Amino acid sequence: MKPLLKHVGFVVREIFSLILWLLIVTKIFVYDVDLLLVTRIPQLRRIYPYKFFLIIAVVATVWLILGGKYARKMFLFIAAYPFILLWRILVILFENWATLLLFAPALESIVLTLKWRFILGSFAILAALGISLFSRPVPLLVAMSVVGLYLIIHYVFRFRGAYRPESIFANIAPKIGLMWENSISTFKNAEAAGDNPEVGESPKRRKKHVQNLKNLYISNLLFTSVATKLRLSVSSRRTDLYFIVALIYTLILTVIAFGFEYWGLFKLAPSNFRVTGEVSGWAFFLFSFNAMLHTSFATVVANGTAHCFSQIWS
């Protein structure tokens, strides 16, 4: 029973810490989530002005139930959770260094194109925000064009990556081979530098020769170990996870982008959709997802230009 309670407590602590820090980051950098909850849940309006005293009461209650030792540990864990999470990620990366090395060319490509990825992504986010806020035709058309352009660029990069003749492993393999050739060249140069026909096989020369062989042997062991780890990483199909995640990300991005495009079309001309009553932006994201799956659970029906868009997406 005790291990079960300990496991449940660990899970609850992890979930609570993660949710709390997500709310904090969202409130600081994105949106006032607490105000959104207050506007959506009227019962919270009465206690919201006294949130400071509510937090004190919750902390005191937890401290009373868990006791001083466990409560201090939990509070310190929650306060340091971002650093703990970062440490866990570093440990996972260190334990799976072969897989990380396998993806080194892809990571290098991301780092080199980070500037343009950030700029395009920022403009796409601002354009999506503009679609949700604007009502005039010209700003809406500009925002919709930016979102569509971003989606097209994303697909161009994905197709280029999919049809490249060299794979991730093919990119890293020549570099490992080049490093091994350099170690051989270093050994040969060291041997050639020690050759002196006039001196002959002196004890110093033999000692230097043994040291060169040791260095070559250590290099051989290192590169053999790296090659074995890379081969195991490839055979474990971990690389497939990268492509699956990339595919899921592309699908989600496409659903969201087309959802904003449908929303913009509705704002430009409400006749593009048949709706019943008032609709929010979520209805168009649902319609975008519905167009992908060819189901009939969407609350809006496309007409005219929107119907053409839905046919392209489906």
Overview of this structure, please?
The chain is mainly α. 81% of the residues lie in helices and 1% in strands. It has 13 helices and 2 strands, in the order αααααααααααβαβα. It has a two-stranded antiparallel ribbon with strand order 1-2. α11 packs antiparallel against α13 (304-313). The longest helix has 33 residues, at 203-235. It is flat, with a radius of gyration of 30 Å.
Helices and strands in order:
Layout: H1 2-29, H2 33-40, H3 51-79, H4 81-95, H5 97-102, H6 104-112, H7 114-133, H8 137-162, H9 168-194, H10 203-235, H11 238-268, E1 273-274, H12 281-293, E2 301-302, H13 304-313
Antiparallel strand pairs: 1-2
Helix pairs in contact: 1-3, 7-8, 8-11, 9-10, 11-12, 11-13
Search tags:
about 325 residues; mainly alpha; 3 domains; two-stranded antiparallel ribbon; about 80% helix; about 0% strand; flat
Strand order of the largest sheet: 1-2
How does the major sheet shape up? 2 strands, antiparallel
- Please give the number of β-strands: 2
- What is the CA–CA distance across the termini? 52 Å
Overall pLDDT = 78
Q: Unreliable segments (pLDDT under 50, ≥5 consecutive)?
A: none
What global shape is seen? Answer: flat
Helix content: over 70%
**How many structural units, i.e. domains?**
3
Computed CA radius of gyration, to the nearest angstrom: 30 Å
Order of helices and strands: HHHHHHHHHHHEHEH
Beta fraction = under 5%
Count every helix, treating DSSP H or I runs of 4 or more residues as helices: 13
| Helix/strand class | mainly alpha
